[in-house]
């Protein structure tokens, strides 16, 4: 809405509600990379956000931007309107009004258009409804007032705010202002100051990247606004202390599961989220929690392993060696804990079988557990090397080699008839998406198996995503993220792009969704019913879920092709993948500096430009479309000393930091 239509009364923004953490510590005040791609940035310009239009109960627009200064509600005419913010928002809602008569003003919230009404979509996970919030606005004559939702009832994620009245007599209300004060990403003074960007010849992919980035923002919250546990009998409460030493933390979802679940860190990691898992590690056994306080569940070997891998990923981008030194003894304790479950076969025997929600058996010698262990070992090798612990690195590397043999054996997890891994060594009832995708992504599969696995996985796709066999009927972007990255890793570029468009693109364009976020999961028929939705109607799943944001990294790391290989990007690799795209560019920022690259297809080859901090070094790998090395020119001069891999078709050369142009001619 325009300010002339919905302008709140002047006053101090409710920063105190968020423990003085709003806009205090983030170092960037402007985006690292600015350009025409900024049009896709969904993050608000201000923490006070107003609706863009008002709908009636039938979802028809009754008032658009700048059309009319006020909305009238009456028990004699209309008693409810839907304020559409045009995208996901979250925080404390304020409503200015003038009222005469007796009755209540009500507010309800929903992420999806399906559930607009006087009852909010479900977030508490209990048996009762979330219901609505009410304020008694009775007045004998027209009286102006303002209602702000209580701090403990702040709504972490919604697109639609439903404003309505209830009365047993006569009540006339004029709404003169509606706005939400944004609570997420509390330590950023400029919500649009991204450290990275992505742009390409495919506008859908561009929108997906920015929706993924915005999803991560909305799930980064003030630590004192967590989900209360146990669940309230009805209604909701978001004032739990997540016991994080910091001003923000990455949680599971914006609306629901506002807690640190280790599984989300398999896709997106942040310092405070990783640290709190170390803070609540079992000091005796070395086991990491599956979810931290106030929920505090243990008993998940896979989530334990994801925390270990997330430690590596955080250090890789942050170069926070102080964090690594502080926690490495506990990391080693975590490795000892999980390796104690490797049995005489050389395979991990999963006993902590809690997982991401899969229905299929996950105990025993599961494929996903063993592929995650392989990933933890290989990333653990890097951590040990970065700290100079070479003997430990060699020890873990030997364990990884020993693990790879049995998990790839037809006597255990590999099914040569299917061309895919079984669920466990003794369960061939399904060939799971998670374990097979992780086998590609972490490199745990034999090279000779990789193409077969990549060919198998799309047999589970329908027109809107990958139906996961281990959670029948459901499409789970968390697991699809591993599949996308797995296809990219073995250069099945087109397959990866197709899945991103098919699943993430479908949701982003869904008129009933947020048109701005990445959803937790959905059913194969396109309904929002997902997994164990207690409402059975689809209002419980989160439409802003951090575990669904894999495209944010994948499009930079694989399509643009630029990714760090040492902490902070001291060394890096540039290996673009084109698929059906004509051009792409993107970048990211680390404490070392800004990293960016762009490429465009030209007749007979392509042109690649990169800009990395001075003093860094890298490897540039370019692919020839004809299976033989092409001519590589660096800044106009032919590059000597290149190597060519006939199996992959990649030509490799060493590179230095700075701004350079590489041209490949076939």
Automatic annotation (TrEMBL):
Domain (Alpha-L-rhamnosidase six-hairpin glycosidase) ranges:
196-410
Q: Name one Pfam family in it.
A: Bac_rhamnosid6H
Query: Which Gene3D superfamilies has this protein been placed in?
Result: 1.50.10.10, Maltose phosphorylase, domain 3
Name the domain of life this protein comes from: Eukaryota
Sequence ranges assigned to domain Alpha-L-rhamnosidase C-terminal in this UniProt record: 561-626
For the biological process aspect of GO, one term held by this record is: carbohydrate metabolic process
Q: Does the keyword Hydrolase apply?
A: yes
Q: Name one GO molecular function term.
A: hydrolase activity
**Alphabetical UniProt keywords:** Hydrolase
The protein's matches in PANTHER family, at most eight in alphabetical order, are given as: ALPHA-RHAMNOSIDASE, C, PUTATIVE (AFU_ORTHOLOGUE AFUA_3G02880)-RELATED
* The protein's name: Glycoside hydrolase family 78 protein
- Look up and give the organism this protein is from: Zasmidium cellare ATCC 36951
């Amino acid at each position: 809405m325009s300010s002339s239509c919905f302008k709140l009364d002047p006053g101090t923004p409710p920063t105190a509600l968020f423990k003085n953490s709003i806009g205090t510590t983030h170092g960037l005040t402007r985006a690292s990379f600015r350009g025409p791609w900024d049009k896709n940035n969904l993050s608000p310009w201000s923490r006070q956000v107003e609706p863009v239009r008002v709908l009636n109960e039938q979802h028809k627009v009754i008032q658009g931007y700048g059309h009319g200064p006020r909305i009238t509600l009456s028990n004699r005419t209309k008693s409810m309107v839907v304020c559409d913010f045009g995208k996901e928002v979250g925080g404390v809602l304020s409503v200015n009004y003038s009222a005469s008569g007796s009755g209540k003003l009500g507010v309800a919230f929903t992420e999806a258009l399906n559930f607009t009404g006087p009852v909010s979509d479900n977030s508490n996970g209990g048996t009762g409804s979330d219901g609505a919030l009410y304020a008694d606005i009775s007045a004998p004559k027209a009286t102006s007032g303002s209602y702000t939702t209580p701090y403990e009832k702040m709504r972490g994620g919604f697109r639609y705010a439903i404003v309505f009245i209830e009365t047993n007599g006569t009540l006339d209300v004029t709404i003169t202002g509606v706005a939400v004060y944004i609570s997420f990403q509390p330590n950023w003074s400029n919500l649009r100051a991204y450290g990275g960007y992505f742009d390409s010849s495919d506008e859908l992919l561009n929108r997906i990247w920015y929706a993924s980035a915005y999803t991560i923002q909305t799930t980064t919250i003030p630590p004192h606004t967590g989900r209360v546990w146990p669940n309230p009998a009805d209604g909701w409460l978001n004032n739990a202390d997540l016991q994080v030493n910091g001003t923000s933390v990455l949680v599971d979802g914006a609306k629901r599961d506002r807690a640190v679940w280790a599984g989300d860190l398999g896709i997106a990691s942040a310092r405070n989220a990783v640290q709190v898992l170390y803070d609540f590690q079992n000091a005796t056994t070395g086991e990491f929690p599956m979810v931290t306080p106030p929920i505090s569940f243990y008993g998940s070997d896979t989530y334990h392993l994801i925390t270990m891998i997330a430690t590596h990923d955080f250090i890789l981008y942050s170069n926070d060696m102080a964090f690594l030194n502080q926690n490495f003894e506990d990391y080693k304790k975590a490795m000892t804990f999980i390796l104690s479950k490797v049995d005489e076969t050389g395979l991990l025997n999963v006993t902590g079988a809690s997982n991401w929600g899969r229905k299929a058996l996950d105990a025993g010698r599961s494929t996903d557990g063993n592929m995650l262990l392989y990933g933890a070992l290989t990333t653990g090798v890097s951590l040990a090397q970065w700290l100079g612990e070479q003997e430990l690195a060699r020890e873990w590397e030997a364990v990884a080699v020993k693990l790879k043999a049995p998990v790839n054996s037809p006597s255990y997890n590999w099914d040569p008839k299917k061309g895919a891994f079984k669920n466990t060594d003794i369960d061939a009832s399904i060939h799971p998406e998670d374990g097979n995708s992780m086998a590609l992504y972490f490199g745990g599969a034999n090279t000779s198996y990789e193409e077969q696995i990549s060919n198998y996985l799309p047999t589970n796709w329908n027109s809107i995503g990958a139906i996961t066999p281990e959670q029948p009927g459901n499409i789970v972007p968390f697991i699809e993220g591993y599949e996308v990255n797995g296809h990219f890793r073995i250069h099945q570029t087109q397959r990866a792009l197709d899945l991103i468009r098919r699943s993430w693109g479908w949701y982003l364009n869904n008129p009933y969704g947020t048109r701005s976020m990445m959803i937790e999961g959905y059913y194969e028929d396109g309904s929002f019913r997902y997994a164990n939705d207690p409402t059975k109607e689809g209002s419980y799943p989160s439409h802003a879920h951090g575990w669904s944001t894999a495209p944010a990294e994948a499009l930079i790391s694989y399509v643009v092709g630029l990714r760090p290989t040492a902490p902070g990007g001291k060394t890096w690799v540039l290996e673009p993948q084109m698929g059906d795209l004509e051009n792409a560019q993107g970048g990211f920022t680390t404490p070392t500096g800004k990293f960016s690259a762009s490429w465009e297809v030209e007749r007979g080859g392509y042109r690649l430009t990169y800009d990395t901090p001075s003093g860094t070094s890298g490897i540039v790998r370019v692919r020839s479309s004809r299976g033989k090395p092409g001519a590589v020119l660096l800044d106009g001069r032919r590059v000597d000393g290149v190597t060519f891999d006939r199996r992959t078709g990649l030509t490799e050369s060493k590179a230095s930091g700075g701004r350079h142009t590489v041209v490949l001619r076939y």
